[in-house]
Amino acid sequence: MSIEVVEIGKRFGDFVALDDVSVSIPTGQLTALLGPSGGGKSTLLRIIAGLESADSGRVEIEGVDATRLPPQKRNVGFVFQHYAAFKHLSVRRNVAFGLEIRKRPKAEIRAKVDELLALVHLEQFADRLPSQLSGGQRQRMALARALAVEPTVLLLDEPFGALDAKVRKELRDWLRRLHDEVHVTTVFVTHDQEEALEVSDKIVVINEGRVEQIGTPDELYDKPANDFVMRFLGPVT
Ligand code: ADP
Ligand code: MG
């Protein structure tokens, strides 16, 4: 099973943001969409999520043609760079939100939220407001909230981009460990080569609306498909 992106085209006016992009994203893995700013990574992620429609091509999620499905029918969890938490709700209620609007039984919600807060190591902060968390803790809350509705796919757009270098590194390692625990198919956007190389199972290099290479970190490193990939990955530091 997988997410199949098939010949997706997207224009903004005359500008070609995605030029017949095809990618197969394997189930259960952690995949990075990596590339320079403006390359089309977020647009592709938003099309997979159903937040933006493509001009041509199709998206299949786990064997289902999702091309024309609205976001809420795609069973995806989404985390953005700047997470919009409900400021007046506790951490617990923020995480519970998706379950509450689905009218799940109270006891079930409580158990699920406890489990998620433990998973993201925020148990002791359950009753705080989001403003009383650090930036890194807030992004962990965002992840717990995205996972609450048990999505088939977790989509993250530069989730750690707004954090300082040290916290970024911590969260990156933490995302890897979390993924190894829950195994949910995860696609995350980053422009940071090191981040992609260190945490992902597979990397899709995207530049100027085209896929330059798809491979494991080792494959990209040992056999860059072209000069662009070689230059973009740069020397090991
Ligand atoms: P990335 O996430 O790789 O930085 P994006 O997918 O955000 O790139 O954007 C790809 C290109 O499409 C950029 O040149 C951007 O300016 C353009 N673009 C994205 N969204 C819009 C939009 N809503 N209207 C016009 N241009 C857009
Ligand atoms: Mg982007």
From TrEMBL:
Source species of the chain: Frankia nepalensis
Stretches assigned to the ABC transporter domain: 3-233
EC number: 7.6.2.9
Enzyme class: translocase
Gene name of the encoded protein: cysA
Protein name: ABC-type quaternary amine transporter
Keyword presence, Transferase: no
GO MF terms held by the record: ABC-type quaternary ammonium compound transporting activity; ABC-type sulfate transporter activity; ATP binding; ATP hydrolysis activity
A GO CC term assigned to this protein in UniProt: ATP-binding cassette (ABC) transporter complex
Keyword flag Membrane: yes
Keywords: ATP-binding, Cell membrane, Membrane, Nucleotide-binding, Sulfate transport, Translocase, Transport
